[in-house]
Amino acid sequence: MNISGPVNTAGNLRGLETLMMDIILNPDLVSGLVRFSEGVMRSTIEYIGADCADAVFIAAASDNPDMLGLEEFMKISLPSVRNVTNFCHDMGLPAIFHPHGLFSTEDRKEVLRASLDTGVDGFQFAEDNTPSGILRETSGRCCVLGGLDAFNVLLLGPEERIIRSVGSLLDSLFGEDYIMTCSCSLNRGVPIKNIKTMADATRSYCGGRA
Length: 210
What we know:
Elements: E1 2-4, H1 6-14, H2 16-25, H3 27-49, E2 56-60, H4 65-68, H5 70-90, E3 95-99, H6 109-116, E4 122-125, H7 131-138, E5 143-148, H8 150-155, H9 159-173, E6 178-182, H10 192-205
Parallel strand pairs: 1-2, 2-3, 3-4, 4-5, 5-6
């Protein structure tokens, strides 16, 4: 099941631009709203996850160190991610965290480590991250998802670029604890044939086993 992350949810409730201003001008309101958002996430997981889900995917584009700032991301977002992950585990459900922003560079390794310290079972990295930088911290700790640029490659194509990008990605990630996905949700209007090209290229790379 897919649920919105804590800052994502708070931004939906408050208005994202207003919430960003509140981080500076009204941090107590932000703290309260993120706690409320965490409660919304728990209620959703409890209601749907009990019968229908085999995993919880925390979709968190606004839980983003580039947007919030590094310290604010770790202070505002990650405690709720940890709490929700523990809640998922208590229900017997694995949790996958999909924040946006840069995590793979040397100056972001502490942010990535802190994200993994929440106990998540999967980490889906977004655009502009390098697989090697992600794997340095995730190896042996959780599975990795993501990688293929959902807009510039999967939506726009062409077929040859999709095949080339899949191959480049799997050169780094094949044999690791990796689940092949694109970098984010499918863009509206993405051609079905492009998705098939991605899937076929993955199967071909993996010898038909994917």
